[in-house]
Amino acid sequence: GYNMAKMISIVVPCYNEKETVELFYDATVPVLKEIGYDFELIYVNDGSKDSTLSVLREMVQVKSNMVVLDFSRNFGKEAAMYAGLKHAKGDYVAVMDVDLQDPPSMLKEMIYGLEVEGYDIVGTRRVSRKGEPPIRSWFAKQFYKLINSFIDVEIVLCTYFLDHCLITYKDTFNDTCLYSHIYSTDSMVINTPCCYKSFFWF
After folding, report:
1. pLDDT (tens digit, 9 = 90+) per residue, 35-55?
2. pLDDT (mean) for 29-33
3. Which of 92, 16, 2 is nearest to 49 (CA)?
4. Pure H helices in 36-127
5. Which of 22, 93, 188, 191 fits a 20 to 30 Å CA distance from 148?
6. pLDDT in tens, 142-157
7. CA 56, CA 68: separation in Å to the nearest integer?
8. 117 phi, psi to nearest 5 deg
9. Cα separation of 141 and 138, whole Å?
């Protein structure tokens, strides 16, 4: 059975997503409650130019288990993921797209892979590329073919390495300062100097 004392952190990078941030919360929280873990949703506002931050600030006042990190400008999705992972408190961490391309319903199955089957990392992949422009599918196939020619471990087409990836969290990230404000559910606001440091992803 699952260890109910554990906690899962969901890292959610956001850029101009005012219409979807609350939809994501409403779709994901019931799944997490069904799993039975403690949980937190870490929204990282990556310098959105629309009202994403305003919506998140309103949400954090009335919704539980939610933290918002706000960048001073747009640093890119990789930086947003890094900041979220660095801030995460969970035993497990998932990185998910806020537009619900990553189905929250799959989290339970992914937890099973970690808890019962003993994996350290559980990722997902599409079963088809239906609806995608043919040229994009062709480039994707060529990309995976090229990558696989350089490495010993085969990377499967349509695998999501970090998007919708649930990992056993190990605090191996170096300290960095990427965000300018943290908004948490107890209305605390922390102002920090904002800088950007380059880093390599695994």
Report:
1. 999 999 999 999 999 999 999
2. 96
3. 16
4. 52-62, 77-87, 107-115
5. 93
6. 877 887 787 776 665 5
7. 7
8. -90, -10
9. 5
CB-count exposure of residue 48 (10 Å: 0-12, 13-18, 19+)? buried
For the ranges 81-85, 118-122, 173-177, the lowest mean pLDDT is seen at: 173-177
Q: What whole-number distance in Å separates Cα of residue 82 and Cα of residue 96? A: 13
Q: Are 15 and 48 in contact (CB under 8 A)?
A: yes
Q: How far apart are CA 23 and CA 97, in angstroms?
A: 12
Strand 7-14, strand 38-45: pairing: parallel
Sign of the alpha-carbon torsion through 186, 190, 194, 196: negative
Q: Which residue has the higher pLDDT, 97 or 135?
A: 97
Distances (CA, A) of 19 to 14, 55, 73, 80, 120: 11, 9, 20, 19, 33
